[in-house]
Amino acid sequence: GDSVTQMEGPVTLSEEAFLTINCTYTATGYPSLFWYVQYPGEGLQLLLKATKADDKGSNKGFEATYRKETTSFHLEKGSVQVSDSAVYFCALGGGGGADGLTFGKGTHLIIQP
Amino acid sequence: NAGVMQNPRHLVRRRGQEARLRCSPMKGHSHVYWYRQLPEEGLKFMVYLQKENIIDESGMPKERFSAEFPKEGPSILRIQQVVRGDSAAYFCASSTTSGRENSYEQYFGPGTRLTVT
Asked: Cβ–Cβ of A46/B33 closer than 8 Å?
């Protein structure tokens, strides 16, 4: 079945550092790929998405490129802020034809001032 | 522009009681999905419903769990005879159309945190 693997956390960075959170996937077909962010005590917010190979999703300074050859969708940001502290989830939809999303376990990001 | 609404936000039940979780999708959305998040885990898909129909319940435990999305009113996730292992955050998501038609984009509610004592 479909699966998503993302780097374990917590990831601790200083403010203004460069961020990469790795995400790789296994899926049949041609899935859509997503990054969601969860702030403490809240639900998931869609951060960005890509629906086909070589698409780049971007939002709020975050970017991720759909790499079919390496089955990856790594999240990057050039300069993180304390307010970026949250849990980040990589997810895929439509790989095996199912309607539910398949999520990674999440990466807890901590940004220190 | 109200988003997905869930209530209650927190629910405490004793073992053996019933838990009823409610989800109102975003305005104009007629597709609802339920997910469960166990501590330190990602979200796991449970069930996908359209109005009055269960489309995919492949992630739903076979016993004690049921879901509905009536013609009028919110979607309900019902857990009968709760056990400690049911303690988790339950999230609802909604979409305008089926996944195949909207690239699987879903919008999530704030979740219901169920604690079984």
From this structure: no
pLDDT tens digits, one per residue of B1-34? 578 999 999 999 999 999 999 999 999 899 999 9
**Which residues, 6 or more positions from B55, have their beta carbon under 8 angstroms from its beta carbon?**
A99, B48, B49, B98
Within 3-32 of B, beta carbons closer than 8 Å to A belong to 4, 6, 31
Question: Whose structure tokens read 């988003």?
Answer: B3
Specify the DSSP class assigned to residue B28.
T
Residue B97 and residue B40: Cα distance in Å, rounded?
Answer: 31
- A101 vs B: CB within 8 A: yes
DSSP string, A21-39: E-EEEE-SS--EEEEEEE-
| Cβ contacts of B102 within 8 Å, gap of 6 or more | B95, B96
Residue B59 has which token pair? 């992630």
pLDDT in tens, B41-95: 789 999 999 988 999 999 999 999 999 999 999 999 999 999 999 999 999 999 9
